[in-house]
Amino acid sequence: MRIGEIAALVGVTSRAIRHYHHIGLLPEPERRGNGYRTYSVRDAVLLARIRRLTELGLGLDEVRDVLADDEGRELAEVLGELDADLARQEQEIRDRRRRLAELLERPVGTEQPVPRELAELLGTSPAPHSPAAARDREHLALLHSTGMGGEGFAALRALADDPAVLGLYERMDALASASADDPRIARLAADLVAVVPDAALESVPDDGPAPTGFGEALLADYPPAQAEVVRRVMTAMTDRVNRRKR
């Protein structure tokens, strides 16, 4: 049989057969004087087995193990691993669908796909049109996605009902083009720290509200005066956390 004939017989493509030859999965038969490969029935049996194994979901390296007989793993072992992997994939799909269902039910006003507890916080922002508030929402979503913040998000939910927060965002926005030595910085930083509830600090690590590298990147995302406010807030929160834990 020529390559096209064995491909049609087994139900694979000639390209697949050539790939199997290239990676050493299927031995390449000798060529006749005319340059054509001639395949035997044994080649077809082996090729059919390769096809069945790949249809079960085995990768080509796993197929190679099965075909290696004594040098490889037993088929039952490989299939058992495949079954376990499929079970993990099924669980991941269920988890993703659950999160998707939560996102579909998120409150009106949340402009990005985030988990329910964070959506409830972002959807009740007291300053929806504030650039500083928008940056806060982006940072909170990033913190949540990296596993930082934890239960502190629920505690921050109380700030949405505090009328003083709107004024704080307005004061932060007013510093957008100010210098890092603006006299308004110290007072604003102190007022921001004062409104953060103690419960929001429970999940803050001992080294502060953000790891060093992330903290530096966070500050770089702000204009100079606003960055100085955030730096002072982070320092004050670290001190406050350490005092609570003594």
TrEMBL record:
User: Does this entry carry the keyword Coiled coil?
Assistant: yes
Residues forming coiled coils:
79-106
What the entry lists under InterPro entries is as follows: DNA-bd_dom_put_sf, MerR-type_HTH_dom, MerR_fam
Identify the residues that the record assigns to the HTH merR-type domain, covering every copy: 1-69
| Pfam families per the UniProt record, alphabetical | MerR_1 (PF13411)
The regions listed as transmembrane in this protein's record are none
Q: Which PROSITE patterns match?
A: HTH_MERR_2
Keyword list (alphabetical) reads: Coiled coil, DNA-binding
GO function terms (MF aspect) = DNA binding; DNA-binding transcription factor activity
Transmembrane helix in keyword set: no
Protein name, please?
Answer: MerR family transcriptional regulator
